[in-house]
Amino acid sequence: MSGLTLIETYKTDLKKYSPEQLRYQPAAGAWSVNQVYDHVIVVAHEYLDRVEACATLKTKQNSGKTDFGAQLFTRGGFPPIKIKLPDELNTPPSNTDSKEFLLIRLNELSARMKRLRGTAAESNPEYKIRHGGFGWLNAQEWYDLIGMHFRHHTRQLEDINLKIR
């Protein structure tokens, strides 16, 4: 399922939550639905920034992916495990957005992805920017990573939904 299709699914699913359910954290330190949405939106924009940056590069990068990055792209997604980021990268996402504002943000993300879809596809695949965990990625790979990341957090949302009041 593409990133754009997943965004539409996230938008549809968003409608079923009350404001209280949206912000409900099932355990201390666990994320709410709101925080998952905030996280995937923020990260997707960061990945799209990399798509744009790759498109402006003029120097080829011969370096490749890390072993984990190569496995990720071969598999087409993250393994079904929880991934713990280092503390300095693990600031809790916002838990304050309304459904309406999350919907606006998802629509803005979708529009930006549509605008940059061609840029990602047409960029030189040898123009790459380094991802801290996955190695050197080109514009198309950064773009594809958005859908993988949304799919990865779908499992987290399913877990939250089982515990939601």
List keywords for this structure.
single chain, 165 residues, mainly alpha, Four Helix Bundle (Hemerythrin (Met), subunit A), two-stranded antiparallel ribbon, 6 helices, 60% helix, globular
Task: Summarize it.
The protein has 165 residues and is mainly alpha-helical.
Please describe what this structure looks like.
With 165 residues, the protein is mostly helical. The protein has a single domain, classed as Four Helix Bundle (Hemerythrin (Met), subunit A) (Up-down Bundle), CATH 1.20.120. The protein is built from six helices and two strands. The chain has helices at residues 3-14, 19-23, 33-56, 67-75, 99-122, 139-163, and strands at 128-131, 135-138. The chain has a two-stranded antiparallel ribbon with strand order 1-2. A hairpin with a 3-residue loop joins strand 1 and strand 2. Helix 3 runs parallel beside helix 5 and helix 3 packs antiparallel against helix 6 (139-163). The mean pLDDT is 92.
